[in-house]
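Review form for a predicted model. The reviewer records the input and the model, then writes brief findings.
Reviewer: anonymous (R2)
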Amino acid sequence: MYTIFVVSIIIIIVVLLLAVLTTSKAYSYKHTVDPIDDNPYLENEKIENGEKKQ
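Model under review:
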């Protein structure tokens, strides 16, 4: 019975450790945003609204 308890505790610790590591790695990821000039969706929106392309 104690072996099942110990194995369960080890599995819980490993899962918790992996969750903390992946969350910290996700928060350290640097997100980037495309400049407005290079946005193809903005050009399509201008065409649909009848505006001239610059």
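Findings: The two ends are 75 Å apart (CA to CA).
Further findings: The chain has a mean pLDDT of 82.
Recommendation: see findings above.
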